[in-house]
Amino acid sequence: MRILITNDDGINAPGLKVLEExxxxxxxxxxxxxxxxxxxxxxxxxxxxSYTRPMMVSQMGERRFAAxxxxxxxxxxxxxxxxxxxxxxxxxxxxxxxxxSAENAxxxxxxGGAMEAxxxxxxxxxxxQYYGPAVRDTPDPFEAARLHGLPTxxxxxxxxxxxxxxxxxxxxxxxxxxxxxEVKGVKVAPxxxxxxxxxxxxxxxxxxxxxxxxxxxAPQQQPTSxxxxxxxxLKGYISVTxxxxxLTAHDALEAxxxxx
Length: 260
Prior knowledge:
This protein is α/β, with parallel strands linked by helices. It contains seven helices and eleven strands. The strands form two sheets. Strands 3-4-2-1-5-6-7-11-8 form a nine-stranded mixed β-sheet, with helices on both faces.
């Protein structure tokens, strides 16, 4: 198997090393793992592409490249340049430092890389490690992803739904904020929503007196609706969420016929 991996935390991020281990096990001795990842951290860029400026891609080693762009840029660079001789069989994005459950998925560069791969007709999966008190200060905060990532992906490749339609399915996997031995299993779950917990801004002044705004987040331990991704993660399960890039609110189409 020929696997491309990327992320949004940058090419030197510890989560990318975890994903390299997972991808190497998945590819097998006859397979290949290619890395095309951002040269610098790109958290929160979602599905951004560098449409108005060029990007430099530098080779860092065998099948290892750093791109001055977003995760979606990295996928484009890989498919259409770095790996142009043979497309990847699978694109993996992550392992993100922090969860991409619930509304976080909408902002996530990790998801943006997987989404672009799906739009390019590739099988794609985003992987993220939920952080919390039980893992944050441990020697290996990525332990749950490291030990459960490979078997979870193998199950998904064997039994998952992979479509070749215009907006093909890709997957969002989030590992719970627990040591690997305390993970209870895998749950297929819809995307949740953390109410009253959106992003905001906080004004600050620099030493020179200039006014700036820091974007602020919110606590990640508040549960979402029962059975959704973040709810399952906080209950100790790995969540697997099938997604599409189609943003149409299909449930509203029929009701809107009245305006035609």
